[in-house]
Request: fold
Amino acid sequence: MTFNISDWVHGRTMGGEMVYGFIESVDALKGIVTLFVVQSDNEERIGRHVAVKASTVKSVPDVSLRDNQPVQDLIDLALATWDEAWFKELTDGLGADERDVAKTTGSAVLKTAPVNRLSRLFG
Reply:
């Protein structure tokens, strides 16, 4: 399987630890990909880079951005990773969806109380 930089994947390290994150580099000759880990069963791996064999890595299916809950979770992840371009892309899309709902219903979109969604991603 071929991987590209920025693909979201999950797999296991040589030590057997589960890692979930995005690809930062690919060494096709050695069969190794370097991940930025956003979730792992070893908390010390979170927020760090780890090299894993490409054969132990599987792609994560894309998420539909039409549902606001996954988008809000991705916004939190963009903030946690300091990815300003991704944050702007996600919030621009979210704002457009909310404006569409307001136009069709004739009322403003109700906002909910703040929720810590990062604990679901990292905890």
Summary: The two ends are 29 Å apart (CA to CA). The beta strands are 8-12, 18-27, 32-40, 49-53, 57-59. The mean pLDDT is 77. The longest helix spans residues 84-105.
